[in-house]
Amino acid sequence: YPAVGRDLALIVKEEISYERIREELESHRPKFLESYSLFDLYRGDPIPEGEKSLAFHLRYRSDRGTLLEEEVSKVHRILKEELARGLDCRFRE
Length: 93
What we know:
There is one protein chain. This protein is of the alpha+beta class. 31% of the residues lie in helices and 35% in strands. The chain has two helices and four strands; from the N terminus they run βαββαβ. It has helices at residues 18-27, 69-87; strands spanning 4-13, 33-42, 51-60, 90-92. Strands 2-3-1-4 form a four-stranded antiparallel sheet, covered by helices on one side. Helix 1 (18-27) packs across helix 2 (69-87). It is elongated and about 45 Å long. The termini are far apart. The relative contact order is 0.33.
């Protein structure tokens, strides 16, 4: 079945490592999240000093059928909420 891709850019404190972010992703991994990959690390304007932005591409897929937009949006929103709580981060739009 086709995959649905979403990008997610987190703004975190400089001391938060990629490994720490990966641990949070894994601990709250939605059932439809097939894979994720880091594609950008950015420091500079407009990101405040002492923070960095890490952007991930997330790939959602079901082995039972084509995912509906509502299904993907729901699990993506929940994942963002969990990451915000666990990493004390915010998201770039």
